Amino acid sequence: MKPSFDNIFMNLATDLAKRSHCVKAQVGAVLVRDTRIISIGYNGPPAHTHNCDEEWPATGCPRDSKGSCSLALHAEENAILYAVKNGARLEGATLYTTLSPCLPCARLIFSAGITHVYFDKSYAEYKGLASDEGVDFLNHFGVKAEKFIG
């Protein structure tokens, strides 16, 4: 039996996460429209800056006041920024990501015109938060965000 495109894209996001240099969490993302890949991304500092696992292998990069990485772009940000940099149209696109979007990424996803988000694991559970604020935001404003069931 052939795998569904949804399974293919989520598997690709999972494989992309392995490219991350983050020592805390590895996240991958795939942007798709009409079963065609628009862009890919994984979390990490901007290209040609740092590789956290090489510079700070024991602790990871410096943390900001909220305990988050002070250097990295999230996988969703990297996928969206690369797509925009290369002139891709994101309206109506679907995003597959291994970790549900945080609230800042959710705002970016909404603003980019992405209409559907599939995620594998919960950002709230990972961060110990009460709810998935990013997922709640997206669903509230008409972007269908849902846990991926393969």
TrEMBL record:
The keyword Transmembrane helix does not apply. CDD domains: deoxycytidylate_deaminase. Keywords: Hydrolase, Metal-binding, Zinc. Its cofactor is Zn(2+). The keyword Metal-binding applies. Residues 4-132 form the CMP/dCMP-type deaminase domain. It holds the Pfam family dCMP_cyt_deam_1. Belongs to the cytidine and deoxycytidylate deaminase family. PANTHER family: DEOXYCYTIDYLATE DEAMINASE, DEOXYCYTIDYLATE DEAMINASE-RELATED. This is dCMP deaminase family protein. It comes from Mucilaginibacter sabulilitoris.
